[in-house]
Fold this sequence. Notes:
Layout: H1 2-26, E1 34-35, E2 38-39, E3 59-63, E4 68-71, H2 74-82, E5 98-104, E6 111-113, E7 118-121, E8 134-136, H3 139-149, E9 153-156, H4 157-173
Antiparallel strand pairs: 1-2, 3-4, 3-5, 5-6, 7-8, 7-9
Helix pairs in contact: 2-4
Amino acid sequence: MKRLWYLMAMVFLLSGLALPAQEANAKLPGNGSMTATGWSNRFDPVYMIPLDKLPRFTTKMVLKNGKTIRFASVKAMLNFYYHPEKYPVFKVRSRKAVKGMYVQDYLSGEWIPLQKAWYVFGSRLMGPHGDDLIPLSSRIRAELFVKRYGGTKIMSFKEVGEKGYGLVHYLDMM
């Protein structure tokens, strides 16, 4: 009798787990479609997490062909930028296809060009996919952010760019 009970519980448990996985696969970026306004789904193309999970971290990349790709965080966008070949559905063959990249000032929500932002590394604040770079519109705002949320380093985009994919890879390991 115990074996039958155990077997029924396992079947019930496994059938309950299988359904959400199938539903999740139906929403993955590979199953979406490209439209005139940009990527039509609501998932990050790198980490496949909902873009509305933590909206303050959302970033966007504008391509020269006019399309816009949204990401869940700075880390996700830079991951895509350094290795566009990993995401063939977007047909971005190289970095030259990118017209501009934009981040939101974490405190105000204001959109700013990626190159003009200042980034806080190592804060207590976690992004939608773990440790991330926190973008702010000025060095002063970054210093205020560090006082409130902590942080080990404030970097300009030039410093972030010099570290390149190694920094993105390091953030993914944490």
